[in-house]
Write a structure and sequence with these properties.
This protein has 297 residues and is an alpha+beta fold. The protein contains eight helices and 16 strands. Helix 2 crosses helix 3 and helix 6 crosses helix 8. Bound molecules: 4'-deoxy-4'-aminopyridoxal-5'-phosphate (PMP). 4'-deoxy-4'-aminopyridoxal-5'-phosphate binds next to helix 6 and strand 14.
Length: 297
């Protein structure tokens, strides 16, 4: 990874407040509310064969995330959808990752920011796999995070808000420093919540179990996988999972736009096989994103 070109030194175009600008000119002032007080919301999307999977859901979630933080994005979902495709075209992205972000600007610099301008930017770049192919093959290793997902009355947990990632970065760094790929986070009650940027599923005796998303993101990939599994006649149970489920599970995988369906081989000291249910959901998910792309063409 060390030889990657830093993100601020790349070439291309970024959509910024209504127009395409040169990649390296897509800057913000250091006295931006979004930077100091985390008043920023974003999306992570993937395009397959030139089509952004579930683009409308992502677009609507961005607006909803901003509403939850008390600000209004000054562009419609439709306008930003067109902008995504302009960005992809300008950067020759067919299979790639799209990152829209909206944040409060610089008019007021304090906790209150009632009058701040809302800025929006959209970038896109090629990004083949969130975890290394080897890690995906053997199943990724999840450490157990010491950080807990907060209660909905402690943080705006339904928003894909930048501030909620503070504990994710802390968890993921600690995991990587101790030889793991990522971390599993429990919630404020001690129930299994999710990984640092993906939802989690556990297979037990041929059924899939996944935590009820009552204090973390109900991922678009998560919902897609539930639908795909049910289409196959696989029972999916949404419920509170705890440590005993982590011990009992036969297979574990995580889901997310970036992670897609990624098998988990280890959580803490518990080992799992990359089994048939995981393989089936990986294959079904790839088929689904390609089918959506073909239908859109
Ligand atoms: N949880 C967190 C914390 C995430 O960052 C993501 C990725 N957006 C997800 C879950 C999965 O969401 P989605 O499937 O919508 O990408």
């Amino acid at each position: 990874m060390a030889d990657l070109v830093p993100f601020d030194a790349r070439e291309g175009k970024i959509w910024y407040d209504g127009k395409l600008v040169d990649w390296q000119d897509a800057k913000l002032h250091v006295l931006s509310h979004g930077l100091h007080y985390a008043s920023a919301v974003f999306e992570g999307e993937r395009s397959y064969g030139g089509h952004i999977f579930k683009v409308r859901e992502h677009g609507e979630r961005l607006h909803r995330s901003a509403d939850i933080l008390g600000f209004r994005i000054p562009y419609s979902v439709e306008t930003l959808e067109k902008a995504r495709y302009e960005v992809m075209k300008a950067n020759d992205i067919v299979d790639g990752y799209i990152r829209p972000i909206a944040w409060r600007g610089s008019e007021m610099m304090g906790v209150s920011a009632q009058k701040n301008t809302i800025h929006v930017a959209i970038a896109a770049w090629p990004w083949p796999s969130y975890f290394s192919p080897e890690a995906r093959q053997r199943g990724i290793k999840l450490a157990i995070s010491e950080w807990r997902r907060p209660s909905p009355d402690t943080a705006p947990t339904k928003s894909k808000a930048a501030g909620l990632y503070m504990i994710c970065t802390l968890s993921k760094h600690k995991a990587e420093q101790t030889g793991f790929d990522d971390a599993l986070m429990y919630d404020h009650r001690g129930y299994v919540a999710e990984a640092t940027g993906a939802n989690v599923f556990m297979a037990q005796e041929g059924k899939l179990h996944t935590p009820t998303p009552d204090c973390f993101l109900d991922g678009i990939t998560r919902r897609t996988v539930i639908e795909l599994a049910r289409r196959r006649g696989i029972e999916v149970i949404e419920r509170h999972l705890d440590e005993s489920d982590v011990v009992k599970a036969d297979e574990v995988f995580i889901t997310g736009t970036a992670a897609e369906v990624t098998p988990v081989g280890l959580i803490g000291e518990n080992h799992y096989q990359v089994g048939s249910l995981t393989n089936r959901m990986m294959d079904d998910y790839q088929a689904e994103v390609r089918k959506a792309s073909a239908q859109a063409a």
